[in-house]
Design brief:
The structure is a single chain. This protein has 194 residues and is mainly β. The chain has a domain at 68-192: Immunoglobulins (Immunoglobulin-like), CATH 2.60.40.10. The chain is built from 2 helices and 13 strands. The strands form 4 sheets. The protein has a 5-stranded mixed sheet with strand order 4-12-11-6-7, with no helix packed on it. A hairpin with a 5-residue loop joins strand 9 and strand 10 (158-160). The relative contact order is 0.18. The mean pLDDT is 91.
Length: 194
Amino acid sequence: AWYPGQAGGRAVAEALFGDTNPGGRLPVTFYKSVDQLPPFEDYAMAGRTYRYFDGEVLYPFGYGLSYTRFEYADMRLNFDRMEGPETLEVACRVRNIGQVAGDEVVQVYIRDEEASVPVPRHSLAAFRRVRLAPGEETQVLLRVAPRAFGCVNDDGEWVIEPGKFTVFVGGGQPGTPGLLQNTVEMVGKTANLD
């Protein structure tokens, strides 16, 4: 329950007794051991946070519990090639395939497959919470800002480099069962975002 505040006891009881369906998601990663992390004197991000850590964890960033299950289908992008900074629209259908109503947090992650500099393994680019009754289905549209495709080059400039990007959508980060994915390619010259 972390730091639930004065109403925390009631909120935990309502979740435990099924009066409410939990829908929160973790804003951090819970590692199995501090031995998995680099020394704290090392300020580089390599090996830290969901964006750079590639080991096995107890609970990943974006993880959450529910008394129901959700199914994703029909992922669509408004484009699969871009020549400059453009807003990507990611659409998918989400269906509650469980027996109770619940909230799902639809998450979009981006992975740069061909960066010329070190970049995160993947990064959260957009998310949206939806509430669905049992058997209900909805179309979800998420917008990904051009900066989500960017990286800082060797000259310290925020740019989008030509190359392929993998776009993931689902109830968690890459590696989560039921995740959908597609690719987008940046063609042409490097685009400066500064």
